Amino acid sequence: MTNCIEHEHDVLVIGAGGAGLRAAIEASAAGVSVGMVCKSLLGKAHTVMAEGGMAAAMGNVDDRDNWKVHYADTMRGGQYLNNWRMVELHAKQAPDRVRELESWGAVFDRTKDGRILQRNFGGHRYPRLAHVGDRTGLEMIRTLQDHGIHQGIEVFMEMTIVELLMEGGRVAGAIGYDRERGRFRIWKAKSIIMATGGIGRAFRISSNSWEYTGDGQALAYRAGAELMDMEFVQFHPTGMVWPPSVRGILVTEGVRGEGGRLLNKNGERFMFNDVPELYKKQTAKDIEEGWRYVTGDKNANRPPELLTRDHVARCINREVKAGRGSPHGGVYLDIAWIKEKMPNAEAHIQKKLPSMYHQFKQLANVDITKEPMEVGPTTHYVMGGIRVDGDTQMSSVPGLFAAGEAAAGLHGANRLGGNSLSDLVVFGKIAGEYAAKFAKSNGAVKPNPQQIEDAQQRALAPFDRGASGENPYAIQRDLQDMMQDLVGIVRVESEMAKALEVLKTLNARAAKAGIDSHREYNPGWHTCIDLPNLLLVSEAITRSALDRKESRGAQFRDDFPEKKAECGTFNIVTWRGADGSMQLRREPMQAMRDDLQAVVKEMG
Amino acid sequence: MEKATFRIWRGAGEQGSFTDYVSEASEGMVVLDVVHQIQAEQAPDLACRWNCKAGKCGSCSAEINGKPRLMCMTRLDQLDLTQKVTVEPMRSFPLVRDLVTDVSWNYRVKKAIKPFKPRKPDAPDGSWRMQQSDVDRVQEFRKCIECFLCQDVCHVLREHHKHPEFAGPRHFVYTAALEMHPLDTENRLGQLKDEGGLGYCNITKCCTKVCPEHITITDNAIIPLKERVVDEFYDPLTRLFRIFKPRKAE
User: Fold this and answer.
1) Do A365 and A405 fall within a single domain?
2) Chain B contact set for A156 (CB, 8 A)
3) What is the C-alpha to C-alpha distance for residues A588 and A567, in angstroms, rounded to an integer?
4) Domains located in chain B, CATH noted
5) pLDDT single digits (tens) A419-453
6) pLDDT tens, residue by residue, B65-121
């Protein structure tokens, strides 16, 4: 312990995206000392990439909207596997969180009467997404950052946590290193909030940045927490497909919210051919009705392009497999067509979708105001994560909390677009509040020196193996290829069984990963440290997906293509057994409270 | 597959030199792809910052053939690949290693600027009313992704090293977003003049030219701020007027 820099806080927040920042602000407001550690510079976390908006039933554009509709939409979107208490809190509190951001300086787009404008999005019955063009995530993270830096939070940028420190079954802190020098540091803390985001780097085609290596899920798992719903990985229907180097970069659902249509190579608007039973009543019958919906006609139903992401992604996949795709293996997403419907369409598109316009212009030489885009599914989000208590966000480990994408529960089997940004601030706040309470009512615990010693040795092992060890980048690439091919959008038992075999080999290779030279800002070393986390979440995804023998939400099983009623009664939970191997159980769901059942019924 | 040579800065602190790497250059690739390829195949310890790879986070700022740019948004087909392509770190900030610089100074400057202070809410539910036309300008400034390329190119920082006394274009844009925010009630003009060193800027517009978000930094943010500072502190009529009218709280 002598060679470590030590810090001490009441609450330690790991991750500084929307959830981490909101949690830190709340904990600090409760009067406890707060430290926040993040892998990147402040303000660069993945929240910055969110485009479309933040779902909150404020009813500014359509006054028929309220928390009950939002509740019912979220449950339906999640195929009723959601933690209904979290869905309730989310639907009720999201409007206040949006207004709070405005009071901290966020500048949302406005309605004609000067209120916060809301836009249509997949699975939301009414226009519900507060937004700023197509850069809502940037607005959110910058607002939280610029507010947060004045709240007395101690921020540690570009530092990576390698292990949670435990004592007597409770969290006692964390050990990590600064990327700049590679020096170890210890953060003692009474409670810890995991706000580390997702796992998207486990797949080859992904909209996620390098940071998304499942750190929070893996750290919590190793500390004894449970993971839940890991089989549900969201493949966003529209990522870029061409040129190859940009494959996977997100194309916001906002394009469809503004009227964008999906076409196959025959120019057919194929989404009209396949509308699921659960959504028949809410979907437009023809192109005209769909257009009326996106232009604000309250009596019209939404176009089928705005069905939930799981469904749209599968339809695109089917078109491509059937040979009706675009030249580079996607389909066409066309927003330019709205010029048939409105004057000044080009200026409108540039105003409403400015970053999409620039992204395609600069990276693909495509002018989206004139030509269609080529798009295909991309790994985007994990609905599963650390299993938490719906009221407090505490995991099964005392003092360990989770919020945002790192936590499971709110989204069930499939997340609705726009529910993520609101998730971050609603549950970031709750986690911050309860983590501060926990820290106030529980004394300090001393980290175990032996654990600290061991963690350092493990982290430095790649240097012992040196350049003769396995290339960590090659292992990561092989893992991504394997997960994409065997545990991707369409899953089948034989392929996933094979995936488990390959994971064994990859684990053995990762144990031999080596790097020579120095510890200072060495991305090869960082990749060695990310690998065990990626491998762990990949195993949890694969085992959970194998055990769910049905197709529901984001999980599509070719060998079990139907949804089964008996599978709608449990969540799949994984945890580390006494012998270190991964355990799995089907956790029965709690019956929904009567008044909430009534809400679902009322909303049809 | 076409090949090209990239001269990449390697080193830490004051020490460093260019190293040549030959890498493939296929259709649609950007400079950041090349850096990743070199990391994976030739130099696993090549240090570089990046996150989104879509021009949204502002992490991968560097100087490519001498021009401050985002590596993720610089396509190889915009460069002359018959010549060596140089990739080096931002030169206005201390080098950490290879392509990574120490930009922490920017975070300290921002923290010193007086934060947002809204007027009382307009409606009982705690919300405000603002017209879109009143927030358009502020929204332009809030597009900033904090890549710090404007800071890198600004000669006041780059040539004259006025780091402690000059906040730089990024922070003028930040201050302009606050000052022109329809709800804000704070006054930062004295701070801009004294601590921010706004007067050092001689509006050469280098910052505007390199902004990947196409924010018209000089015309829309800096010049209006300069006008406000002049009105507040140097305008003889205003000064005369102030003798009779107490000044707005600072």
Assistant:
1) no
2) none
3) 10
4) 3-101 (3.10.20.30), 104-244 (1.10.1060.10)
5) 999 999 999 999 999 999 999 999 989 999 999 99
6) 999 999 999 999 999 999 999 999 999 999 999 999 999 999 999 999 999 999 999
The continuous run of DSSP H or E covering A161 comes out as strand A159-167
Is the same domain home to A174 and A285? Answer: no
What's A283's DSSP letter? B
Q: Is residue A595 part of a domain?
A: no
The beta strands (E) that lie in B71-142 are given as 85-88, 95-97, 100-101
> What is the rounded CA–CA span in Å between residue A460 and residue A462?
6
Catalytic hit among A22, A179, A236, A509:
A236
Taking the CA of residue A520 and the nearest CA in chain B, the distance in Å comes to 8
The yes-or-no answer on residue A256 being catalytic is yes
A220 to chain B, closest Cα gap in Å: 24
The number of residues making up chain A comes to 604
* Per-residue pLDDT tens digits for A305-351: 999 889 999 999 999 999 999 999 999 999 999 999 999 999 999 98
Residue A192's CB is within 10 A of a number of other CB atoms, namely 34
* Number of domains chain A is built from: 3
Helix (H) or strand (E) holding A186: strand A184-194
- Asked if B26 and A244 come within 8 Å (Cβ–Cβ), the reply is yes
- In this structure, what DSSP letter does residue B225 have? H
**Interface contacts A/B by beta carbons within 8 Å:** 168
Pair A161, A296 in one domain: no
Q: Give me the catalytic one of A90, A131, A256, A548.
A: A256
Question: Distance from A381 to chain B by nearest Cα, in Å?
Answer: 14
CATH of the domain at A370: 3.90.700.10
Residue owning tokens 């990276």: A363
Range of the domain at A567: 460-588
Set of chain A residues whose Cβ sits within 8 Å of the Cβ of B41? 473
Contact residues, chain B, for A48 at CB < 8 Å = 51-52, 56-57, 145
Eight-class DSSP state of A407:
B
Say yes or no for a CB contact (<8 Å) between B104 and A157. Answer: yes
Q: How many CB atoms lie within 10 A of CB B42?
A: 12
CB A233 within 8 A of CB A199: yes
Considering CB atoms only, which of A114, A147, A245 is closest to B30? A245
Complex prediction ipTM: 0.95
- CB-CB under 8 Å, B56 with A42: no
Within 13 Å and on the Cβ side, how many CA atoms surround A540? 30
B1 burial (CB, 10 Å; 0-12 / 13-18 / 19+) is exposed
Smallest Cα distance from B1 to chain A, Å: 14
Query: What's this model's pTM, rounded to 2 decimal places?
Result: 0.95
Is residue A230 in some structural domain?
A: yes
